[in-house]
Design goal:
Length: 83
């Protein structure tokens, strides 16, 4: 039960980080960055897969979309959360 809860918590953490990363990218593309990264919402199921924790490769799947990026800190945090 705890293992499942840790997985759900890790996915929630990743969703928040992913939303923040998307908001940061959007902010970087605009001339007037905003501070409301926490207001980003996501209405589809989200699955996070740590492809390789050592290299920091993270895969995110949502609907028909797949995003792969490298984030060493996120990969390490999720791997630790999964225990």
């Amino acid at each position: 039960m705890l293992r499942g809860a840790a997985g759900i918590g890790a996915a929630g953490l990743a969703a928040g980080v992913f939303a923040g990363a998307v908001a940061k990218a959007a902010d970087a593309a605009t001339t007037a960055p905003t501070d409301d990264a926490r207001s980003v919402t996501h209405d589809k199921p989200l699955t996070v897969h740590i492809h390789d924790a050592r290299s920091g490769v993270v895969d995110i799947y949502t609907g028909e979309e797949h995003v792969r990026f490298t984030d060493h800190q996120l990969a390490a945090r999720l791997a630790r959360a999964a225990g």
